[in-house]
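Deliverable D5.2: sample structural annotation.
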Amino acid sequence: MNDKITLKEAIDNVLTCQRENGHPESYLNDLRAKYDRLLKHAEKLGTEYLTEDLIEQFMSDSNNALSGEYLRTRFLSHSRCIRFLGSYFETGAVSIKKHHEPVEENISDGLAEALRLYDRKEAESGLSRASLVKNHRPIRYLLEYMTALGYEQLSDIQAGDTISAIEDMLENHYDPSSLVTAISGMRRFYEMFPELQQFRLEIPARMPRKRTIIDTYTEEEQDRITDRLSSPDISSRDAAICLLSFETGLRSVDICSLRLDDVDWKHSVIHIVQSKTRRPLNLPIRSSYGNAMVDYLLNERPSCGEDYFFLSVHAPYVRLRTTWHIVKKVVSSAGVETRGRLTGTRMFRHNAASTMLRKGVPLPAISEELGHKCQDSTMVYLSTDKETMASLTLPLPKEGDQD
């Protein structure tokens, strides 16, 4: 570790580099909060420098402060902070490239080649980038597990290994409800290669889905968010993004992918093809987020060659990759609790559906506005409407009633 530059100096320089790299203040504030956490660990250890012991303690602090549950996102964000520091110590600058662990490091050559063949076939099917990444991950975990068993080729895999690999994924990478989406990709992988087809029956037909009551905002919390979004302290860009999701339930990926030509101002409609479902969606432009979008275009949006609607605040002006930090900042500043709760456009999406349901909007109309493939996806929001749920319950039988 570097023992010439103090940890605090290095952190200040990393934040300066990231600001010069064009990251918005919201991102820098979030990064600074994580580095404050690192500094607290350093204080406990009595060190002013980045040491191996400090890194180990910081990386082990990956559990939810309330529930104690391991959070992979927290682990990854801590890892990113350490990588930024390592990059600064090594080069005097901070790389803004995403970190990808080479497949060859953890997967044997023969199995890595099978993964590359699978990735190419999946890409040829026309799936979205997000779907390709989602489908790749469980196959990578599967082959990493097989490599750990000492296997070099697909033909080395034996009966029972697939079941053991899935159990390992459930223990270390997924909960059952998350692994549901990986099962179909695993089945396609096994069907691709004759060596694996005999083990297809080891892949379960289904995984148990975890059904929970969806959390939404209370009416008071909704009012606070609405009031906050009308504040002059909120930029037109952030207000437009939040209102667009808050009122329509539009996903973050679709907001980030929105292009200037997708907005038909003449007919007051937004035309998009959803990234998740590849289905077209037409959203009417309401005055609330429409006015904020116009204000952003006229007064805030930087003049550049990018045709994405929403861009980063600082140069280089590029499309947004996520809106999570924008939404979280607005919700938190509105005085709405975010700790231990779903945050971001997913929460806005749930809340939009629940609000429409409480207002009596028919399920088919809600399904159409949210862009669901089928109405069954919308049925889950019934759990958020207590009055409707109460009306569906049967009364308790009175004494003396007969069947």
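Annotation notes: Residues 25-45 form the longest helix (21 residues). The chain has three domains: 7-91, 103-202, 219-387.
The annotation will be released with the project's public dataset once the embargo ends.
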